[in-house]
Structure formats: C-alpha cells, structure tokens
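Hi R.,

Here's the chain you asked about this morning:
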Amino acid sequence: MPVDPDAVLTEELLAGIRSRAAGYDEGNEFPHEDFGALAEAGYLKAFVPVSAGGLGAGLSDVVSLQRRLAAAAPATALAVNMHLVWTGAAKVLADRGDAALGAVLEEAAAGEVFAFGVSEAGNDAVLFDSVTDAAPDGDGGYRFTGTKVFTSLAPVWTRLGTFGKDSSGDEPRLVWGFLRRDEPGWRHLDDWDTLGMRASQSRTTILEGAHVPAERIVRTLPVGPSPDLLVFGIFAVFETLLAAVYTGIAERALELAVEAAHRRRSHRSGGRPYSQDPDIRWQLAEAAMAVDAVLPQLERVAGDLDGLVDRGQAWFRALSGLKHRVAETAVAVVGTAMRVGGGGAYFRGTELERLYRDVLAGLYHPSDPESAHTTVANALLGPLEG
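And the predicted structure, written out as tokens:
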C-alpha cells in the first residue's frame, strides 16, 4: 500500500523545517532540530518494513517524500538522502533476493544512521575504482586508509558505508563495508563552508586505518564496471533520490515565482501585476513545462525499480539521464524564478536566493554531464574504439 506523504510529512512538520532553513544556512550549521523531528516521524525508517517498525515505503513513495522535503529545506533533504540511499539500496537488493545489506535495514530499524563515505577527490571512476587502500587484517576484515569527500550527515551518522581497494593479491579487489562511529581510525575535517547546501555538513572524512571486521564486509568486487547487484542498487537509488531532491527545489522555485508575479507591480503599465505581463507569463509557462517534463521520467524510473522491471544495461542510461536532466532543468527553473522575482530576489536571506545557491550543487553530483553523456553514447553507439 502506498505511503501517504501528507501523513508522514505533515504541514506542521514541514512548516517548522522551512522556518529553520534560512538560519541553518546562515550559520553553516547541521539541522539538528530538523533531523530529530524527521527521526521522530519515522522518516529515517522509510524503507524499513512495517513488520520491523518502519514505513514499508517503496522508492516511488520516498521520491514523493523527498520532493516535499526538498521544497521546504533542500540541504536537510540532501543530507537525509544519503541515509536513504543506503536503506533504499538495501531494499532494492532484498526485493531481488540478495540479503547482503540486510543488516542495514535491521540497524536502521534500531535507530542507526547511515552515511555515504564513497566519493573521493579526482576519482571519476566513482563506484568502479577507489584510491582508498583496503588492507586485509588476516581475519576477513580490512583496514581502510584514504580520504572521502562530501560525507553528508557528518555530525550524526553512526554507520559509514565505505569502500577501498585491496591490492594485496594478484588481482585488485574493491572492498565494501560499514564502519562504526564509536570505533577509532577516522576523523572529520571541519571544512564544509560552501556556496550552497550548507546545512548538509558534508565534511571531508579521513580514514586512518579504520577497521571494518569481517562481519561488516558486505562485498568484494573486481575493479572496473560491474553488473553486481550492489553496484546497481547504490547507483539506482542514489541517482533517483538525487533527482527527487532537485525536482523538489524546482517545484518550490516555480511556486515562489508565481507568488512574485502576482505580488510585483509594473509602474509602466499603471500598477498592473506582473502576472498580466505577456513576457513574464511566457517565462513561467516555459518553466512549468520543464518541470512537467521531468516528473513522468522520475516517476517511471522509480516505479520500474519498485516493480522489478528488468531493463538490463539500459538501466544505467536511464538513471544517468534522469539525474542529468533533472539537475539541468532545476538550475534553469530556479534561474527563471530569479528573473521573475526581480532585484529583490538577489538580496541575501530571500528564499529564492538560497534556492539559487543550493540548486547549483546538483551540477557536481554523479552523474555529471560528461559522465551521463558518455554512458548514453556508449549505450547507443558502443564504446570508443582504440
């Protein structure tokens, strides 16, 4: 049964989150009050089965929820996204008969918070290689040494999903596992001072021989592109939920632009509202059509993932293309909203000004434009020769 977004993210809850967003942004602070309220509402257990105390949501449900949350507070939604990526990936695997991430859902049900310690500066291979060293401990576990960037939820995570490369054997292997916060060998840098998405507090994480024992190692894979279900699950949920966040930003920017068009008056036309100006009407119609165009794509991808539709290798084209299209659309829609909002929208502290800064982060998440176009071109034409 679908989850009712209004029952999970009530108007009262969203109003409180929206009211705090500007302050967290200005103070460059993690949204602790938002996070606590969402945890109390069961939001962090969205993908956890009802039988284990969760919402029993599918990806389509969480896409709807994340759109609503992002419209209220983009940085809060982006931060929570990383926990939802791990729990969503666990559901994707479980739905397909793979129990490798079963402990993720079990621990999420118990209140653990999962962060995404995967991104590495300069590693454009993303999930297919790592510059972090994973050294075997001799008992099936590994010690990870390296630097991870954009670790959202830095102040509150209790489990860090990460990976590195074991080069000790004849063939290097990529090792995936989960680090506990209460164990040594890691530290955060207090370096998150960015243009936008400030409340996500996606700090750099230094791994200094951080130990993950055998029971928390979930996969070892060959270096390079892999059809493994773990890779698919992570990529599918990551791209889809990112698209949900940036769709929510675009939807909110469009709402604010419509409000501004009704509110602003034109002296040249005798005080008529800008909502009666043909040029403004055209711009808003263009922005609305752009949002309308990405919604079916987002909903279809999420629905097909829930429905276990087998697209084979075409999934990677669809997922890369979805994230790219949504990110570019959101940037364009927020830009239009800024124009319609007039010079007042350019002042610090307005919601549109904050959305304008926040939406730019979408350009940097995988898949970036180059990667997305390469993926789609390879799907259509085959790989480059030579």
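The CA atoms of residues 214 and 301 lie 35 Å apart.

Let me know if you need anything else.
M.
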